[in-house]
Amino acid sequence: MKLSRTKGVAELLAHGGTDEDVVTLTPEEPEDMWHANNLIAVDDILRAHAIRKVTRTTNTGSTTSDRVHTTLTIRVESTFFDPVASALHVSGPVVEENENVSTGQYHTLDLELNRQFTLLKPGGWDSVAKETLAEALRPESGDDLAAVVMQEGLANICVVTEFRTVLKQRVEHSIPKKRAGSSALDNGTKAFYEKVMNTLLRAVDFEPKDGNGSRALLLASPGFVATEFRKYMQEQAQRTNDKKLMAIARDAMVVHSSSGHIHALNEILKSPEVQSRMKDTKYGSETKMMDDFFKRLRNDDGRAWYGVKPVEKAVNEGAVGSGGGVLMVNNSLFRNMDVATRKRYVGLVDKVKAAGGDARVLSSDHESGQRLDALGGIAAVLTYPIFDLDESDDEEAGGDEGQNGEGMAI
Amino acid sequence: MSRHQEFRSVQSTLDEHYYDDDDYEEEEEELSAEDQAAMRQGVADVKAALGVEASKVTTKQIEEALYYYYYDVEKTVHYLLTKFIAPAPPKAAKTTQKAKPPGKHISCLSSRGAPRHLPGTSSAATVMMPSPHESLRLYSPIAIPQFGTATPATAMTRSSISAIFDHMPWGNVPSHRLTVFVEPERPRGGLMGGSGAAPKLTRMQQLAAARKKKVADKKPSSSEDAVDTTRQGIQTLSVEDQPKEKENQILNVSGGFGKRQKLSATQAAGRMPLAELSREERQQDGSSSQHDAMPPSAEQDSTAPEPAPELAPPSAFAQTLFGVGAHEPAPVTTRQFALPYMAYCPSLTDAFSKPSPDDVVLTAQAKAGKKTDAAASSKKKNVGVDAVAHDVKALKVDDAPLPKSKNLNVLSEYEKSKSKKTASFVVVGHVDAGKSTMMGRLLLDLGVVDQRTVDKLRKEAEKIGKSSFALAWVLDQRTEERARGVTIDIATNRFETDSTIFTILDAPGHRDFIPNMIAGASQADFAILVIDAGVGAFESGLKGQTREHSLLIRSMGVARVIVAVNKLDTVDWSKERFDEITHQVTGFLTATGFQSKNVSFVPVSGLTGDNLVRRATDPAASWYQGPTLVDELESSEPTTRALNKPLRMSISEVFKTMPSPTTVSGRIDAGSLQVGDALLVQPSGEKAYVKSMLVDEEPADWAVAGQNAILHLSNIDPIHLRVGDIICDPTHPIQCLDSFTLKALAFDFLMPMPVDVHRGRIHAAGTIEAIPAILDKVTGSVTKKKPKIVKPASVARLVVKLSTKLPLEAGQRVVLRSGGETVAAGLLE
């Protein structure tokens, strides 16, 4: 993502905020779209290039409609991010009139690569947003890799980047089970490998634009599927004399996973092969953090808590501070939330930071983030043990049930 | 005769031949029937076929001819006739004479033909027969060529049958026009059941027969059935029967024909209802006179003219038919009418003691056309008379089958079929405990696999330096499995003992393939836990998959486990070692939740086969005198099946076969199904129909819970079928859920986390979304609400969310795994 000078700030500032609250960014990589998704929140003012179909009625009553290239400014109401295509669609009412569109009309802006957009946060940038922006502006580490997590008859082809794991394609193939004197199994396995290989080559670009070597490939499976698949790729490369494929197959790393489901990626990222390659990356540390948390949770020493309420309580008590206190929040909690809720989480993060603890915003698009998501999106390792954090939670739950009961009675 | 032999395989006629020969030889050659060699039998057949001409050829000539024609009796007879008997003109004349029993057929045929060829005449006997008999006539021509030896029964029953017609008004036909049924040559005993020993037909007869056959061509296959019925009816006829009774019987018979016609029109199996009828007749008529066994004298009596019975006034029907002219019956009482349809009956007396090849073919055809011969289903059951009768009774309701389904009451069918018990067991244990090898040895010793196959495998195994894997290769058939010497997927195989049909599910021991092991365990009634007694191996196994597998089979609902302490030969059959292992394993199995009475131990050697099927030969193992592994298996009572529940069958395999490109196999978890049933496949929600099915690799009409069935489906695309899918009853479909509540026993710490969800073959990704409560292990009451973590060995209620919708319902056993470890198992709520 590239930061540029903003033009026409004055008009934007009519919607609130100060000079400092306005940034103009140019997404350059698909990954930047994801960052943009994290940056753009509800009630932000977004100005970007737009293509709008404009219908004009002539004096005679006939209508002509044109697709007009224009620049529109909207107040964000919702965002939609397509992770596979890395496309971000932001919609909301137009706040600045021009010759084509009047205010109040709705428009959905499709942010595009290499076209700059301007973002104004009328309420100012909070610490989490600033951090996200900083992350977005950091140059690409280029350490993303392609991974195929597979088991017999199932393969998940994904790309693991620093900030997220994108499931590019899921390949399912029904392989016949073993039967006496049947070659169907071998044929079925071959067909499966072929399907996976073709899908992999189509879904993953192994030659990134900057051209610094090919993208690494990770093959993971229980048993021998990954090994066999790698062998198959090599054979195919030799047969077709495909040098590119040969290189990919040669450099492919084979690691063990307990299953072919995507959440097994977690184990893969912990494997020494991957750790050595990605240890400095964000998700490397995130994975480690989550593992530590789960370890503590197993020990049940009262220092690991998850869920919004217990964690909020702990943070308010100052239990997540210096000396091992870690707060983990999924970035999904900051996304598409109403301002008040977002403020609440930002407040937690700020409080932990102020107390000297470690506050991390995890990417919900990584396996570690997914695990955190299962825990309610927020978890904390406390500096000192507290055992009764969930007691009141129970009562509240009871209260909730009571309310539900009433609701049902009505 | 000749057709008859063409239709019948040697195998199926063999018994008949023996039988025929018995009679034949008793009278003419006095040879013992049982010990006849093929030649001897052939000679006998030929002689029988030649009848009186047999004397014209020497036994040696027959033997030579037989040898030349490779025991084809028909050809031999033909050859002998043309070579030795027919050439001389006087002999040719004799040939006709020789065929005297068929000569009667000629008269029969001509008598039948007469009314047609002589239009305008107020025709004789044929016309006057009761109308059902008209239909019967259709069958006679076919039967004559096929079952030539018709005479004995005719002779036997003639007088009684003819008595019926004494009541009939014969019209005003001049007596010279009345058909004269020539009395057949007195039959020799050997011809009684003598399909195999029937005389050769003359050309004329064949011609006439062929013509008649054309007329009745639509029911060629079923004529046998008809004949069978008639035969059975005749069996029960006694000469002294009162006319009234006989009338009943004839009506019965004709009724049978009517029914049969109907059935043949729908291509359904006609045989059973007919058999049913014949059985009724038998019950009705207490006479036990078996015409086969009937002494010649009795037959002699039967041929004697009977005094004219009193004439009853013509029936209303007869009056309608024949009008006023009928009131004065002609004095025909002295005439002997061998009813044409009776002519061929006796020849078939034995034809259906076993399903004929035609039946087999018909069955197959019917199956292909979604209509199954009921006979086939009864075939696989014990074919006692009673069993057949039972089946027949059950089938009685199905006289008018729906186009597809036979609408069987499968459960009562199942109760009636006294087939063997079926049981399946899973073989589990730590990797390299010798599971596959042991099962390979078991199959070899039981003769399911022959030594040659194993030798061949051994040679192949030696090639890659793994000769000790030869036995395991019997089950490990995948190239990968062989190359790596490890079982990857469940291997299934079957073997039978005297009481039970067993299905082996050989599970992989390697931890990576536990999903496959779970799939296997979900189909099993009980388990064999194989333990490597080798030093160190037992201990590592106990920490490894021995423990996990025991946990899994217990949580999959397997209650009975046989512990095979394997490789005891490597420790010199040390009793101490066995006792030590027994002690430890008992301890941890009871801790796992097995009752000690359901756990038994057998010291075995899978490689050598000691104590598997046979006792150990090693004197060092003589301390063990308990049951062998197979004994233990047989004593294992299969668990009760949920027969009355709606159908649930999980697909363990989808493949293509000749009968249907969409063939699935799997175990029926609950309920029952039958051919023609509509099924619902979940989660795809597609409907399919059962075209045909195999149960335990035999064609069947129905299957019940606990059986392993292969279904040939129609009206469904293969893409809707996947391994792990559930086939269910469309009226009680299984729901597809993407979130479910589970009452689970935790084996590890549980918290909201991603897990692999296993149910049978289904292996899906999911997440523990919430833990509503921890439950008391005994009472099931809630001890703690919303715990943040569930500790091992505690019972908790979990809410699991799945990434995709899966067919799940309450009461199913689900295993949760995470990171390659089994973390929980439980029942769906």
Automatic annotation (TrEMBL), chain A:
Residues 400-410 have a biased composition (Gly residues). Pfam families: eRF1_2, eRF1_3, Pelota_N. It is found in: Cytoplasm. Keywords: Cell cycle, Cell division, Cytoplasm, Meiosis, Metal-binding, Mitosis. The keyword S-adenosyl-L-methionine does not apply. Residues 391-410 are annotated as: Disordered. One of its GO terms (biological process) is RNA surveillance. GO terms for molecular function: metal ion binding. Its cofactor is a divalent metal cation. Residues 15-138 form the eRF1/Pelota-like N-terminal domain. InterPro entries: eFR1_2_sf, eRF1_2, eRF1_3, eRF1_Pelota-like_N, Pelota/DOM34_N, Pelota_N, Ribosomal_eL30-like_sf, TF_pelota. GO terms for cellular component: cytoplasm; Dom34-Hbs1 complex. Belongs to the eukaryotic release factor 1 family. Pelota subfamily. Component of the Dom34-Hbs1 complex, a complex that recognizes stalled ribosomes and triggers the No-Go Decay (NGD) pathway. In the Dom34-Hbs1 complex, dom34 recognizes ribosomes stalled at the 3' end of an mRNA and engages stalled ribosomes by destabilizing mRNA in the mRNA channel. Following ribosome-binding, the Dom34-Hbs1 complex promotes the disassembly of stalled ribosomes, followed by degradation of damaged mRNAs as part of the NGD pathway. NCBIfam families: pelota. This is Protein DOM34 homolog. It comes from Coniochaeta pulveracea. The gene is DOM34.
UniProtKB/TrEMBL annotation, chain B:
Keywords: Cytoplasm, Elongation factor, GTP-binding, Hydrolase, Nucleotide-binding, Protein biosynthesis, Translation regulation. It is found in: Cytoplasm. The gene is HBS1. GO terms for cellular component: cytosol; Dom34-Hbs1 complex. Residues 18-33 have a biased composition (Acidic residues). Component of the Dom34-Hbs1 complex, also named Pelota-HBS1L complex, composed of dom34 and hbs1. Residues 420-643 form the Tr-type G domain. PROSITE patterns: G_TR_1, G_TR_2. It comes from the Eukaryota. Residues 1-36, 92-117, 211-246, 263-313 are annotated as: Disordered. It catalyses: GTP + H2O = GDP + phosphate + H(+). GO terms for biological process: cytoplasmic translational termination; regulation of translation. This is Elongation factor 1 alpha-like protein. Belongs to the TRAFAC class translation factor GTPase superfamily. Classic translation factor GTPase family. EF-Tu/EF-1A subfamily. Gene3D superfamilies: P-loop containing nucleotide triphosphate hydrolases, Translation factors. GO terms for molecular function: GTP binding; GTPase activity; translation elongation factor activity. InterPro entries: EFTu-like_2, G_TR_CS, HBS1-like_N, P-loop_NTPase, T_Tr_GTP-bd_dom, TRAFAC_GTPase_members, Transl_B-barrel_sf, Transl_elong_EF1A/Init_IF2_C. Residues 229-239 have a biased composition (Polar residues). Transmembrane segments: none annotated.
